[in-house]
Amino acid sequence: MNQGLSVAIVGATGAVGAEFIRLFEERNFPIKSIKFLASKRAVGKTVTFKGTDYSVEEALPTAFEGVDVAFFSAGATRSRELAPSAIAAGALVVDNSSAFRMDESVPLIVPEVNPSSLTKSNRLISVPNCTAILLCTAINSLLKLGTVDRLIVSTYQSASGAGAAMMHFLEQETRAVLDNATLPESVLKHRYAFNLFSHNTPINDDGYNEEEAKVIEETRKILGQPNLKINVTCVRVPVLRAHTETVTIEYTHAAPSVDEARNALSKAAGVRVVDNRQENHFPTPLEASGQGDVLVGRIRNDISNPNAICLMLSGDQLLKGAALNAVQIAELALSL
Q1: Residues 119 and 260 placed together within one structural domain of the fold
Q2: Domain CATH code at residue 142
Q3: Both 90 and 154 in a single domain?
Q4: Residue 43 belongs to a domain with what CATH number?
Q5: Disulfide-capable partner of 218 in 132, 234, 265, 326 (CB 3.0 to 4.6 Å)?
Q6: Measured between alpha carbons, how far is 95 from 77 in angstroms, rounded to an integer?
Q7: Are residues 161 and 245 in the same domain?
Q8: Is 172 found in the same domain as 108?
Q9: How many domains does the chain have?
Q10: How far is it, in rounded angstroms, from Cα 97 to Cα 217?
Q11: Within this chain, do residues 150 and 250 fall inside the same structural domain, yes or no?
Q12: Which residue numbers are catalytic?
């Protein structure tokens, strides 16, 4: 890996931006200089990194001169506007938005799953949708135990998936409901506190919402299986941080045994098995929060289908679902 990199974070004041800062320190990412970039309204705010305070600068096309690696986490619009300028300035761009994920020329990477999809020549790399990252990390080792015919996935997605503002809103609304006070103004069509609802993205003509479509399309791309049958239902739940998913993997022939599946998962990179039937201890978003690994449990054969196995997973949406996966991508790219 290169030593002493010039790094920029676009979206430095957001929830994922905060995780980048913490991860750089924890992983000793090789930084000689760093820029914290955000929207115009955030200019002048202060960010602390390794004991030094830095002023937030406006994210402009001219901000990337001399930058070696630029991490983008400010939404698809800003990525489309600024990523070309960063690349033109010579930076490697690791983008957390949906802007380039389905572009055939842009690799969509989960380092534990498809590292070979990344080449030395790639200057723009996409970080997948958080739900797809957690899913692919969790099931990758199980896909090697037989030919998979179909995936059935239900997601229980936390407020962190919509950013720091939504996490703050959930806290505010929950307090208001408990205090029988006036509810804060919301951008949601449903009350969030003590409720759950179909993921708040537009519904496509086929009846699936945009989040579900992303998970389907991106999972196929990550796994290199464009025709894999996948059915996904995405639900927003009143949890602050970390997503949970239930997954049924249907094989073309007999499914692996529970012991075979558990053994494969216990050896899988980025996975920690939490599967104690006696204690009824399985993955939870609270336990997954702050963890780099995806927690996997409830491993069982499908009693309705001898060719299927079921599991449950929880993973930190801000870490493995976003910032950690991005940093791992950069580490992988720099090692090539």
Answers
A1: no
A2: 3.30.360.10
A3: no
A4: 3.40.50.720
A5: 132
A6: 12
A7: yes
A8: no
A9: 2
A10: 15
A11: yes
A12: 130, 243
- In the chain, at which residue ranges do the beta strands (DSSP E only) sit? 5-10, 31-38, 46-49, 52-55, 57-58, 69-72, 92-95, 124-126, 148-157, 197-198, 229-236, 243-251, 271-273, 294-301, 308-315
Count of positions (residues) in the chain: 336
Q: Which two tokens stand for residue 5?
A: 């990199």
For residue 290, the enclosing domain spans: 132-317
Take residue 195 and report the two structure tokens written for it: 């409720």
In the sheet with 69-72, reading across from the earlier edge strand, the strands are 57-58, 31-38, 5-10, 69-72, 92-95, 124-126
Question: Are residues 122 and 26 located together in one domain of the fold?
Answer: yes
Entry pTM: 0.96
Q: Are 316 and 293 in contact (CB under 8 A)?
A: no
One domain for residues 306 and 177 = yes
Q: What is the pLDDT of residue 308?
A: 98
Q: How far is CA 188 from the centre of its chain?
A: 22
- Report DSSP state, residue 269: T
Average pLDDT for consecutive 10-residue bins of the chain (336 residues)? Answer: 86 95 95 96 94 96 98 97 98 98 98 97 97 98 97 98 95 98 95 97 95 98 97 98 98 97 98 98 98 98 97 98 98 94
Side chain identity at residue 262, one-letter code: R
